[in-house]
Amino acid sequence: MMNDKQSTERYAVVTGANKGIGFETVRQLAAAGVTVVLTARNEKRGTEATSLLHGLGYSNVQYHQLDVQDLQSIEALAKFIQTQFGKLDILVNNAGATGVVVDEDGLKALNIDPESWLSGKATNIVQGVMKTTYDKAKECLDTNYYGVKNLTRALLPLLQRSASGGRIVNVSSLRGELWRIPNEEIRKELADVETLSEEKIDGFVEKFLHDVRNDELEVNGWSKMLPAYSVSKAMLNAYTRVLAKTYKNMCINCVHPGYVDTDLNWHTGTLTLEEGAQGSVMLALLPEGGLTGCYFDRTQVAEF
Ligand SMILES: NC(=O)c1ccc[n+]([C@@H]2O[C@H](COP(=O)([O-])OP(=O)(O)OC[C@H]3O[C@@H](n4cnc5c(N)ncnc54)[C@H](OP(=O)(O)O)[C@@H]3O)[C@@H](O)[C@H]2O)c1
User: Fold this and answer.
1) Alpha carbon distance 179, 182 (integer Å)
2) So which domain of life are we looking at (predicted)?
3) Does domain 4-302 have CATH number 3.40.50.720?
4) For residue 8, what pLDDT is reported?
5) Cα 183 from chain centroid (whole Å)
6) How far is the centre of ligand 1, averaged over its atoms, from the C-alpha of 3 (Å)?
7) 96, 175 in Cβ contact below 8 A?
């Protein structure tokens, strides 16, 4: 049973929130009056980030450990939310991994301009400094796709207790936009929301990992730029649509945060954290009857 305070208060979980866009998303949600659970896989990094926010006056932020690749860790977080709050209003699946081994000095020396990164012109240039190994690709899919699915599954019963229907924000990337996938058949299948299912999406992920292992990415038409990352985000977008189709009373969307200056892109991004968190925060705070099953480029609806 929820007490009066719990039923009127809004509660949020943000993953991968010890730094970057996740950290700023926690700050902006806390500033909007939401009680936020800042989660991080590393306790030291998570508690330090939380202390920083407390120091800025955000006493409505709490830390809880969460490694989205670890089912026990997910289970422990779900139990914590259940015991402390009895419900959840907002889940921001923000944690992310790149899926590549990078020669950072080599990358810096290339001095690639933002326009080349975003347009795809940099694809061939970066091949010498970025390698997709099987282990890195697996880590990427386990974090950006299976991690989101496992956490969402564990928290859905609590989200469904939200008076406003619950909000899920899946932090995606323009790398997952369908037009970037060379294989036409995969593009078509992922675009057809009527026939999409979790099983079908899992099948694509497993096929991709099989192709990484067998060095068959290019021949089978997967993206050449950050292949695992691109696939993880395309599959995350597809999963978002399947979820939204199933849970019609909720607002479930995915968002490209913009090209933001963070560790994830080796600080090649141009937007500030404040700008980068705006899309996630807007979708987390959508009013009742707000859009669902959509992909946003920052705060604007865009094509999948
Ligand atoms: N920056 C951009 O331009 C950009 C563009 C498009 C999309 N995105 C997306 O935005 C999201 C946030 O990225 P960011 O740019 O803010 O990068 P970031 O500063 O590197 O933050 C990534 C966060 O994810 C966490 N993380 C990684 N694996 C995890 C796991 N297994 N369990 C829990 N947390 C984990 C990291 O924790 P540790 O500190 O412990 O490693 C870190 O807190 C990602 O989903 C990313 O794909 C970013």
Assistant:
1) 8
2) Eukaryota
3) yes
4) 82
5) 24
6) 35
7) no
Give CA–CA dist 254/233, Å, rounded. Answer: 9
Under 8 Å between Cβ of 138 and 210: no
**Active-site residue list:** 229
Contact 177/118 with Cβ under 8 angstroms? no
Q: Whose CA is nearest to atom 32 of ligand 1?
A: 67
Residue identifier of the C-alpha nearest atom 33 of ligand 1: 67
Residue 250 pLDDT: 97
Structure token pair of residue 38:
């800042």
Beta strands 300-302 and 101-102 are unpaired
Distance 15 CA to ligand 1 centre (A): 9
Percent of all residues in the chain with a pLDDT value above 90, rounded to a whole number? 91
Structure tokens at 178: 């369908």
Q: Quick: pLDDT tens for 174-191.
A: 999 999 999 999 999 999
Give the start-to-end residue ranges of the domains of the chain. 4-302
The predicted model gives 16-40 an average pLDDT of: 98
DSSP state of 285: T
The pLDDT score that the predictor gives to residue 7 is 72
Work out which ligand 1 atom sits closest to the CA atom of 73.
32
